[in-house]
Amino acid sequence: MTDASLNSDIQPAEAGFGDFFALLKPRVMSLVVFTALVGLLVAPIGVHPFVGFCAILFIAVGAGASGALNMWWDADIDRVMTRTARRPIPAGKVAPGDALGIGLALSGFSVVMLALATNLAAAALLAFTIFFYAVVYSMWLKRATPQNIVIGGAAGAFPPMIGWVAATGGVSLEAVLMFALIFMWTPPHFWALALFMKSDYNTAGVPMLTVTHGRRVTRVHIWVYTLLLAALAVGMGFSGIGGPLYLAVAVVLNVLFIKGAWGIWRRDETRAEADSYRVEKAFFRLSLWYLFLHFGALLAEAALRPFGLGGW
Amino acid sequence: MAIAPQHELHRRRMGRNIGLAAVLVGMIVIVFGLTVVKVTRGDPMAGFDHVVEPRIIPQEDSE
User: Which residues on A lie below 8 Å from B21 (Cβ)?
Assistant: First the structure.
């Protein structure tokens, strides 16, 4: 064996720090950080800024850990899909065993540290979230049911609730409403993506609704979930964490969202393909703003409250 | 082909080591910071290190 062949054998297996960081799904983590921060800040009981910072950090690390466990488990299908083929494991940069080790170690670390920094209830909820995403969603249901998106959405919906529990020590109606908002938002968001990214899920054999029940049914599902979501989002404006500003934002966004879902529901595949899924892509882009602005409005209500302006 | 003194592999390994060091230093800062916050806020503790705790001094009869 020459030096050259020796080098070419070793090089791909030698991961950089960034490759390990990529295992934690940083883009998903950024959403977790934002929603958990809102959950923590809108809670009626304040926390010390440093404790709050640590709580958000540990929630994010816990989410990252579940992401690493998901990448370890799903490495075989990630290899097949173009969107995920460059992830650290299928790209050959990180060994599957390393990803499993990092996932398990960071799971334990984040849960214990959250318990020490805040309270046992928040830590227990974080542990459940990691279990739910890594085991219930990734291992049991993702490849078994076309409702996988709905179930996965539940895992993504826990962070604001954990933030709330970290501050207050218990779950209340407002925390459940924030959970429900993300839970109901996830299916239309991902099904819209699945409508114009069809080849990926087909190739991997993941039972997406678009494949198992057809694209017409998916369009109906998006429409129904959007109506339920709109009722929930606007109704939240009258809860303890809502207020006039949130309500105004929610009404505008939900009118736009319903209009987009109506457009998706009315179209058939011929028309969608004719304009390269313009309506579906616009709906998907709007869905990103939708969640960000709803939680941003909740945060604004909480920020205005000390000045006697936020809330009802 | 000679092995370069500073191979790309070494650079990546160095980056990983520096990253890990930063994470460990960050952990120390966090644990220390949390300790300081919790102690200064008076979370449940006795707080009688290096000081006599009146409760444990045997009470003498007044008579």
Answer: none
Prediction pTM value: 0.88
- pLDDT at position A5 is 45
Q: Which amino acid is at A48?
A: H
Q: What is the pLDDT of residues A196-235, one digit of tens each?
A: 886 677 788 789 898 899 999 999 999 999 999 999 999 9
Taking residues A236-253, report their average pLDDT: 97
Chain A interface includes B63 (CB < 8 A):
no
- Give, rounded to a whole angstrom, the gap between the first and last alpha carbons of chain A: 75
Ordered by start, the domain boundaries in chain A are 15-170, 172-312
The verdict on a CB contact (< 8 Å) between B18 and A17 is: yes
Separation CA A46–CA B41 (nearest Å): 14
Is the CATH code 1.10.357.140 the one for domain A15-170? yes
HEC assignment per residue over A86-110: CCCCCCCCCCHHHHHHHHHHHHHHH
Give dist(CA A187, CA A185) in Å, integer: 6
Cβ distance B16 to A15 less than 8 Å, yes or no, reads: yes
Q: Does A112 touch chain B (CB under 8 A)?
A: no
Q: Do the interacting molecules here have an ipTM over 0.90?
A: no
Percent of chain A with pLDDT over 90: 86
The CA-based diameter of chain A, rounded to the nearest angstrom, is: 75
CB A61 within 8 A of CB A106: yes
